[in-house]
Amino acid sequence: MAATVIDGKAFAAKVRGQVAEHVTRLKEEQGITPGLAVVLVGEDPASQVYVRSKGKMTVEVGMKSVEHKLDADTSEADLLGIIEQLNSDPSIHGILVQLPLPKHLDEDLVINSIAPEKDVDGFHISNVGLLGTGQKSMVPCTPLGCLMMLRDHHGSLSGMDAVVIGRSNIVGKPMAQLLLGDSCTVTIAHSRTKDLADVVRRADIVVAAVGRPEMVPGDWIKPGATVIDVGINRLDAPEKGEGKTRLVGDVDYESCAAVAGAITPVPGGVGPMTIACLLANTLTACCRANGLAEPDGLTA
Questions:
Q1: Active site (annotated) includes residue 121
Q2: Is residue 135 annotated as part of the catalytic site, yes or no?
Q3: What does the alpha-carbon distance between residue 105 and residue 39 come to, in Å, rounded to a whole number?
Q4: Are 3 and 260 in contact (CB under 8 A)?
Q5: Phi-psi domain of 268 (left: phi exceeds 0; alpha: psi -120 through 50; beta: other)
Q6: Given 18, 54, 204, 250, the catalytic residue
Q7: Segment 58-83, tens digit of pLDDT
Q8: Which helix (H) or strand (E) holds 186?
Q9: Could you report the per-residue pLDDT of 226-272, keeping only the tens digit for each?
């Protein structure tokens, strides 16, 4: 029996709809408009496309969108100055500095200069610590999106055996913390894990976030398991013409879908949830800043 396909595009549209409804109520009942500021340094093409998409969707859900586009040679002092202005601006509830930054800028210093309560990427060291100790924090967008989809598919995750393949600060580690928070038994696996295939075969939930194209084959997957594929990798696609590429995940989709109970596709799975959760985080930050109830179903 083929796996259920978890449609991240449709789920993300649902989340954006929930955000828009809550934003409308905030405006009508409280006179408050959530504000998101995005800072882009340099002219990385992928980052430019991503920032445009973020700005468009921010406006579509009724939020205030602010963009600061800076030259690639912008000094660290100037960048930190802009962040400080945004930190002190009460109309801005979320601040995102698009990564990667040019090499002359210290990413850790820049990220940790953002006020933790406005850090809608969830990368500030204070938010990392709060998440790791089970306290209220801003949660990284991609793991939050994965958690939302898992909760929607399974209901309760309590007692499930989960394996996260990948130990990055952006996805792997926070994903493991979120699964622990939902009472899963969690293993973090990586490139040096012994008998990786056997580790993965035990899992009811597999989250692949290792950045290696089609690394996980179907014979690693426990029959009926749920597979969340975070990977986005470009491979040559000669069948589409010279210079053309195709997007694949970190799992071999066809062989895994033949065994799994549910699976996210690439593209159209986890990816759309990242921006949706960025908007949800901005809404959450706005509610917290104003002492209002947080939106149901849009937080960890």
A1: yes
A2: no
A3: 13
A4: yes
A5: left
A6: 54
A7: 999 999 999 999 999 999 999 999 99
A8: strand 185-189
A9: 999 999 988 877 666 666 788 899 999 999 999 999 999 999 999 99
Q: Tokens 């930050």 — which residue?
A: 285
Using left for φ > 0, alpha for ψ between -120 and 50, and beta otherwise, residue 15 falls in alpha
Judge whether 152 counts as a catalytic residue: no
Q: How many CB atoms lie within 10 A of CB 84?
A: 13
Q: Looking at 98, 118, 177, 229, which residue is catalytic?
A: 98
Identify the active-site residue in 119, 121, 182, 229: 121
Residue 256, CA distances (Å) to 16, 147, 182, 247 in order: 29, 20, 25, 16
User: What is the pTM (predicted TM-score) of this model?
Assistant: 0.95
Residue of 172, 108, 184 whose CA lies nearest to 140: 172
> What residues contact 203, with CB distance under 8 A and at least 6 apart?
161, 162, 163, 187, 222, 225
